[in-house]
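Exercise (ungraded).
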Amino acid sequence: MRDSGAVPTHLPLGALLDAVRGVTWPARRPVHRRGAPGTHVSRLTGASPEFTAYRPYRQGDDPRRLDWKLLARTDRAFLRITSDRATVGTVFVVDASASMAFPEPGRDKWALAVRIAVGLAAVALASGDPVGLVISGERVRLAPPRTRRGTVGELARLLGETEPGGAAALTDAVDRAPHVPRVVLVSDFLGADGQTLLRAARARLAAGDDVQAVHVVAREELDPPERAVLAVDPERPTVERALGEETRAGYLAAFGVWREQLARDWRAAGAALHPVVTGEDPATAVRRIAHAALEAGVEAVRA
Amino acid sequence: MTLLAPLWLGVGIAAALGVLALHLIARMRPAPMLLPTARFVPDLPARAASRAPRPTDVPLLLLRAAAAILLGLAFAGPLVTSSRTPLARVVMLDRSGAVADPESAATLAASLLREGDVLVAFDTVAQAVAWRADAVVPDARQAPGDLAAALVVAIATARDLAPRADSVELVLVSPVDQAAWSAAVLPVRAEWTGGIRLERVAAAVVDSAVLQIFVDGAADDPLRATVALLGAAGPASSGVWVSRDSATGADSARVSESGGVLVVWPRDAAADSSGSGAGAVIAGDVVAVAPWTRAALPAGRAIARWVDGGPAATEAALGRGCVRHVGIGIPEAGDAALAPATLRLVRALAAACGDPGRTAPVHDSLVRHLVGAGGAVPGRRLVRAGPATSPATPWLLAAGIVLLLVEIVVRDRRLAP
C-alpha cells in the first residue's frame, strides 16, 4: 500500500486497509491521458516501450516513430505503435445527509459509506491515482485530488469528523467536485434531487469521465421491524406513514421497484451502480466494486 | 365503611370498564421511528382500530382504571366507622313535673339505653347526653315539658348517629301530657320518617283535696271569701301563699326553700293601658267571665290569658317553687268573687308549679300521630339527607389526580421513539 499515513483512531480502518492491500481498481474504459503516466490503459498511443502493432506510415505522421530497421529490410515505411498508460484521478462524493445516519445508534449506513470510500481511496492511491473527496452534508467539505503520502488518512479524518445531517442536495457536491476521470458517488440516493443528480452524472459521462455509484442500503430498510411503527422521513419530517401489517407488503414492493428503477436509470446513463447493504464486509464490497471495474475494462479492451 | 353517594362509585366503576373496553379496541398512533425510506410506505391513516384479544398496554390501563375508581370513590364520599351497630337508639326522657314517678321513668330509660345510644332529657329545654351508666339521674323538676324541643334535638342526634348505625330508633319516655304538647310537635314530628317508640309513664296527679291556700289579705278581701267558699283556706304554712300586696323577701325565700307557690295578687293593682271592664279570663280549661279589672304584669310564662291574648297571670320558677303574678282585679262589689267560675279560676291559679292544671293526657289521636307508622329509620337515609362530607374525599381526589399525571408521563414515554 503506497499510503501509510496515520488514520484517526476513532475510525478503526487498519483491518480494512490491510484487507484491500493488493487490490487493483482499473478504469472501466481506456482513459485520455492527463498528467503523469500511470497504470491505466490510455486511449492515446504514445512512446512507451510496450509494443502493440505496426501501422503503415501516412503523411503527417511523426517520422521519429518510423521503424527504421523494418524500412531498411523491407523498404516499406511502418510506424511502431505502442499503448500508453495514464493515471485516473478519482473523486469520492460522499452523501452525509440525515438519511445516512440510519439506523440509530450505530449509523450503519454512514459507517459503511465511510469505509467503502476509504477502502476504494486506498486502492486507487495504491495505483498512483490522485484521490480527492467531497462531503455533501450540512456544509460541503472538499479535499482536492492528491497522490501524496497521508492522503487516505486525511480523507478518513475528514469523514470521521463529519456528522451526517440535513437534507443537502448531492448534485451541488457533484458540481463542485474537481473535473477528474473518475467520480464515485457513495449515497443512498434518497435525496429529493434524484433526477437532477442523474443529469449531472450524464454530463460527466458525456465528457468522457467514469461515474460509479455506490448505493448504500440499510438492512432495516429492506426488512423493517414487524411491529407497527410510524415511519418518519428524517430529511422530511412531514412525511409520516404507518408501517404495519397492512402496509408492510406495499412498502417492500414499492422500495424494490424504486431500487430496480434506480439501477436501470444509472446503468442506462452509462454509470456503474453497486448496491451495498449494511452488514456487508466493507473489504468485500471494495473488492466487488474493483472486480466489476476490471471486468468492464477487459470488455472495453476487447471491444 | 359507608358511602354518602354510592352512585358516584358506580360512575367510577363504569368509567373504568369503559377504559378497559377502549383498551380492547386498540386504536392508537404507533410509536414513531425514523426511516429514510418512509416515502415508500403506502399513505394510509396513521391510526387504525382493531379488536385486541387482550387489553393493550396493561400498565396504562391499570393507571387509568385506578384513577377513574379513585375519583368515583372520592365523589361517593366514603365514611369509615370503626364500629357499626345494627341499631342505635335516641331515648327522649321527660323530666318535667308532669311525670308522676321520675325515678321509674329514668330507670326505664336506662334499661333502653346501650353503649353508643344517646339520652335526650327534656323539660322546657332538651339536652342530648351520651349514654353512661350514671347518665340517667332522676330530676324532680317542676317545669313543664316541651315535646317539640325534645324532638328537634332527638332528630338531630339521630342524624349524627346515622353513620355509625344501620338504623336509628327514637324512643319517648313520657306521659305525653298537654303541658308538653304544642302546635309545633306534629310539624317537627313530620321530619322523622320512621316511627317513634312510646314508653308511656304515669302522669302526676294534683290532689285538690289537699289544696290549702293562705291569703294574707284583710278580712273584707273578696278573695278570702272565694278561698273560704272553695274550702281551701289554710294556715300560713300552706303550700300556696297568696300575697295581696307586693311580695317580700321572706315570702320568696320561704317558697324557694319549701317548693310551694307564691301568688302575688295585689288587691289594689292599678289598671293597665287596656283599661278595665267586663272580660273573660282563660286558664287552662277554665273560663271565667266577670267585670274584671286588668292590671299590668311582669314578664313570665303566661298561665292565664285574657280573651285578646294578653297575659292575665304569669309564672316564673323560684328555687324549688315558683312565683305567680296575677293581674286580675276581683270586683269588690257584687258576687263575682263567689261565682263557680271564679272558684275554678282561683283553683287553677293556685295549682302546683308547672301548670299541673294541664296534666291531662293528650288525646289518643294525637298520640297516634306522634307515634306514627314504621320503626327505626335506615342510617343511610339519614346520612343522605344531611350535608355530611367525607374526610377521605380530598385525599382520594388528590390520589386520582396524581394517577392521571403519572398516566400522562407513562403515555409520553411509551409514545417516544
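Further reading is listed at the end of the chapter. For now, observe: The longest strand of chain B covers residues 85-94. Residues 169 and 346 of chain B are 44 Å apart (CA to CA).
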